[in-house]
Write a structure and sequence with these properties.
The structure holds two protein chains of two kinds.
Chain A: H1 2-26, E1 32-33, H2 34-60, H3 70-73, H4 85-96, H5 100-108, H6 113-140, H7 147-154, H8 157-186, H9 190-213, H10 218-240, H11 243-246, H12 253-269, H13 276-301, E2 304-305, H14 325-333, H15 340-346, H16 360-383, H17 387-394, H18 397-400, H19 404-413, H20 420-429, H21 442-457, H22 462-496, H23 509-532, H24 538-566, H25 574-596, H26 604-616, H27 622-664, H28 685-688
Antiparallel strand pairs in A: 1-2
Helix pairs in contact in A: 1-2, 2-6, 2-16, 4-16, 5-14, 5-16, 6-14, 6-15, 6-16, 6-24, 6-25, 7-8, 7-24, 8-12, 8-22, 8-23, 8-24, 8-27, 9-10, 9-13, 9-22, 10-13, 10-22, 12-22, 12-23, 13-21, 13-22, 14-24, 14-25, 15-24, 16-21, 21-22, 22-23, 24-25, 24-27, 25-27, 26-27
Chain B: H1 2-21, H2 25-36, H3 49-60
The chains are: A mainly alpha, B mainly alpha.
Chain lengths: ~700, ~70
């Protein structure tokens, strides 16, 4: 009886999911309610988790709950430690959920709500969550080894080196693009700039409190910090209305970019307890609080989605970034569906905390589903805006024109209604001087979130909600920037340590300053170019980041597929092999188009040649002619970087295929590095539930 | 009876939240130190709360801990 009820319940979930999905997929012409997206997502996640993930755990990975995990065998009371599954889930989710799933879907909304939503759902269930779960499993079976180490041990030196270089380069591009998002959100906005600036002394104050006043009282200190952050949003409004003070925070993109570069260097060199650790606590609490608040607001408000299911920009003429639906929607969504970066977390801290292998499904697969859900909410926040408003905020001046009247005329010509008065009123409501050409995704997401929050919890506070949303995005973007620069520094010191022992010492001050400068110069360069680019820079950097991130995911899936085949599980290799094949198809075709396309809005070389010709013929306006040589150099650099990414991906894949073919043919391959079975002695009921 | 059960559940939740935030990391370290090291003669003394948190945070941020 009990079994029958369960069966009927799952049938109902399946039917509801199918109905919700067909409603969002088949709807044309009329606006639909955002609850359909939430319903479809919840049902799909539930079914995938209950059946597909459980099947992978039982049949493909053959999870063994009697086996002692590294946390039990190597328990040292610090990094290796059997930990409650909910605590591990919390740590894992806080580590994987960054700004990516908020920015990607907002940009991809230019194709309409449907393509992005479908990829977020399908990509997460069949690709991203599988990647996270299998990587977590294989790393757990190998004492918590990193992806790079596993690639080297199981496939060969080439795979390991490619993973290492790939990670370093992704870090550089990721930090640059995130820095650009923050700069664009702060440009000529004294309110946003002063609020974001205030987060730095607040974090330091909390750091000092936790270090010297009340050591280790994290929750207490974080609560004080969150209150101060909220006060800083109010204070920002006050500064904005004060004629004397506001000029100190009213800046162009370039000075803001330099401020971020100086800040990034300081964050990499200062002790972690002073800035990085307290900022991370604040951003984690802010992130969780805001995401929960957004979900509650969407359910209370049940907003209509105004963006069409599919726009005409699937043909590649989109204003936010150039390129057709295939493959660019997949490159753009990135983290909300599948993210190679997660494989680094799943093979880092998390496997060292697992008390029992049984928790791998919930932590590896489940946390990714939650991340994907955050991406769905970002998609809703972007598409509840009127499409005309969405495109006015996100289209760069280089595409729609510098003057408001030109931008409006251009957007109207695409069939999306918007007027100068409407945009001026919206900017006034949000406490901004203008919302035209505020590229990067953060301002439009903040407008979307502010209108949802405003409608659900009180309309009079739109400007406060808007700047709260900007602060919320900025604080964890800056955490990623701090942490990324620091990790980049460690990786560089590790690599340089092979040539000069002294440079490899992480506490040797000249080496710290030298390597931090190199890392900051790396991302600072891309940030600088992005800021001076009249097309906004995000249109170049985000696809580059997407390609790099998907490449890393493909490397993780290569390692997983190789291990499955080596373990004699060829018949199940499709579980990781199919998403791998798809990733190779999208990254290779996106890279091919980014390098060789004749369309100057897509191809790097085409854009560089076009700019060179115009520069030589004297056709460029003086301000553009001044930066043209740097833009041309950058387009060439981006093209070679893209080629490098793809070449590495193909090398790792060929390496993996050689290992698999040798194994199938019965020839010797590198030995499997799985640690031998030890019976668990842990009565882990206390630690797991 | 019910009150006792609810109190027990709440205490358990509070314990989990403290673990998640890191507030109870020092207590866990002391426990580990007492269980595994205190019995040996040449064992080093347990770190102070202040020193422990500095070490804990430095270690926490040496690898890739935050994602995109």
């Amino acid at each position: 009886m009990h079994k029958n009820i369960k069966f009927i319940l799952w049938i109902l979930v399946g039917l509801l999911g199918t109905f919700a999905l067909s409603t969002i997929a088949l709807n044309r012409g009329e606006s639909i309610n955002a609850l359909w997206l939430i319903t479809a997502a919840t049902c799909i996640y539930a079914i995938a988790y209950r059946f597909y993930a459980a099947w992978i755990a039982a049949k493909v990975l053959v999870i063994d709950e009697t086996r002692a995990t590294p946390a039990e065998r190597l328990d040292n009371g610090r990094d290796f430690m059997p930990t409650n599954k909910w605590v591990v889930f919390g740590h894992h989710f806080a580590a994987i959920a960054g700004p990516g799933p908020l920015v990607g879907p907002t940009l991809a909304a230019q194709f309409g709500y449907l393509p992005g939503t479908l990829w977020i759902l399908i990509g997460a269930v069949l690709g991203g969550a599988v990647q996270d779960m299998v990587t977590l499993f294989f790393s757990t079976r190998r004492n918590g080894r990193s992806l790079g180490q596993m690639a080297r041990d199981e496939i060969g030196v080439i795979g390991g080196t490619a993973a290492l270089i790939g990670t370093f380069l992704i870090m550089i591009i990721l930090i640059a693009v995130l820095g650009l998002v923050v700069v664009n959100a702060m440009k000529h906005s004294p309110w946003a700039t002063s609020t974001v600036a205030a987060t730095i002394p607040i974090a330091m104050l909390i750091g000092l409190y936790m270090r010297h006043i009340r050591p280790g009282r994290v929750m207490e200190a974080s609560a004080i910090g969150v209150i101060l952050l909220l006060l800083s949003v109010f204070a920002g409004g006050w500064i904005d209305h004060n004629e004397t003070l506001r000029v100190y925070f009213d800046h162009d993109g370039l000075p803001l970019a330099f401020a971020i570069i100086v800040y990034g260097f300081a964050a990499a060199v200062l002790p972690v307890w002073l800035l990085l650790a307290p900022r991370d606590y604040l951003s984690t609490y802010m992130k969780l609080g805001t995401v929960i608040l957004l979900a509650v607001a969407i359910v209370i408000l049940r907003p209509d989605i105004h963006m069409p299911a599919i726009t005409q920009f699937t043909d590649g003429t989109g204003p936010i970034f150039g390129g057709k639906l295939f493959p660019f929607v997949f490159i753009t969504i990135a983290c909300g569906a599948i993210s190679g970066f997660h494989a680094l977390i799943a093979s880092g801290t998390t496997p060292k905390l697992l008390a029992n292998e049984r928790d791998i499904r919930m932590i590896g697969y489940g946390a990714m589903l939650l991340e994907s859900f955050v991406a769905i909410m970002a998609m809703i926040a972007a598409t509840v805006l009127e499409p005309g408003v969405f495109f006015a905020i996100n289209s760069p001046a280089g595409v729609v024109g510098k003057e408001a009247i030109d931008a409006v005329a251009k957007i109207n010509s695409w069939g999306f209604a918007v007027s100068v008065e409407q945009m001026n009123q919206l900017a006034k409501d949000m406490g901004e001087s203008s919302l035209f050409a505020r590229t990067g995704g953060a301002p439009s997401l903040a407008v979307g979130m502010a209108s949802i929050f405003g409608n659900a919890f009180g309309k009079g506070l739109l400007a406060l909600w808007y700047h709260f949303a900007i602060m919320f995005e900025a604080i964890f973007i800056l955490t990623t920037l701090d942490a990324g620069t620091r990790v980049g520094r460690f990786m560089l010191q590790d690599m340089l340590g092979n040539f000069n022992k002294k440079l490899g010492e992480t506490s040797y001050t000249p080496s710290v300053i030298f390597t931090s400068s190199l890392v900051v110069a790396g991302w600072g360069y891309f940030l600088y170019i992005g800021v001076i680019d009249p097309n906004g820079g995000v249109n170049i950097l985000w696809p580059l980041f997407g390609i790099a991130n998907q490449m890393l995911a493909a490397i993780a899936l290569c390692v997983a597929t190789g291990i499955l085949v080596k373990n004699g599980k060829l018949k199940y290799a499709w579980v990781t092999g199919l998403p791998l094949a798809w990733l190779i198809a999208i990254t290779t075709s996106a890279a091919y188009l980014k390098v060789f396309s004749d369309d100057i809005r897509v191809g790097f070389f085409a854009a560089a040649n076009d700019l060179s010709t115009k520069l030589a013929a004297g056709l460029l306006p003086p301000e553009k002619a001044a930066v043209a040589p740097q833009l041309i150099f950058n387009q060439h650099l981006d093209a070679y970087l893209t080629l490098f990414f793809v070449a590495m991906l193909w090398i790792v894949m060929m390496d993996m295929l050689i290992v698999c073919t040798r194994r199938i043919a019965g020839k010797p391959v590198l030995p499997c590095t799985e640690v031998a079975h030890t019976e668990s002695q842990l009565n882990n009921a206390w630690v797991r539930d | 009876m019910l009150k006792k059960l609810i109190l027990k559940k709440l205490r358990h939740c509070w314990h989990l939240i403290q673990q998640l935030s890191g507030d109870s990391a020092y207590a866990q370290y002391l426990q580990h130190h007492a269980d595994f090291h205190a019995s040996s003669v040449d064992a080093p003394a347990a770190l102070s709360r202040k020193d422990f948190y500095k070490l804990w945070q430095d270690q926490k941020w040496t690898g890739i801990k935050r994602c995109c």
